[in-house]
Amino acid sequence: MPDYPSPPPVPGAAPARTSGMAVTSLVLGILGLFTCGLTSLFGLIFGIISLVKIRDNKETLKGNGLAVAGIITSAFFLLLLPILPAMLLPALAAAKARAQTINCMANEKQLALATLIYAGDHTNQFPSSATWCDDIKANIGSDTVFKCPAAANPGDRCDYAFNGALGGMDSRKVNPQTVLIFESDAGWNANGGAELMVSRHMGGRGCVVAFADGHVEQIRQPRLGTLRWNP
User: Model's pTM, two decimal places?
Assistant: First the structure.
């Protein structure tokens, strides 16, 4: 019998490929966790479009589950979008308050150091209570040191006060634990005692205080009544 050639094989259908848009939708939806939901809007749009395309081209496209997952994930983070700021605000407020306290402590540290430098240049005498800001200003690098970032009135030139009992005193005869400089709203060259002190930190329950030896502490309200004011 004659040897007839075999007929060529009929090519099979190409395997369906995974929708790249469905994958993108899921990725954008997951990224919403790190972008506060901002990428989730695009993830939702891409998911819907890919789902429609997959259903219209079932033989050539697959990834229906990926598209649905992308839509659900994106929708979830979009729903969280108005909630996340409310969740983050307390943490941001606490971080801001802490930064203000650190700044205030650094300011008082510089003010106390400038006061001690002044005393060293003036036979160990502290500046006059009535002019202490003017007296130590030359030892301060910037006027912003006189400003507390947590102060209520930004228009005041100085947000600190000097312990009036130490004006003109010999620094060597003052107990190191005596209050030297403290927070106050009384303005430039303010001086006096506990009656001028204000609490700006720890939710209004703490005050930053610099002492006669130059060290600075954040004092909670229960301790404020135990501070030493007389030399």
Answer: 0.65
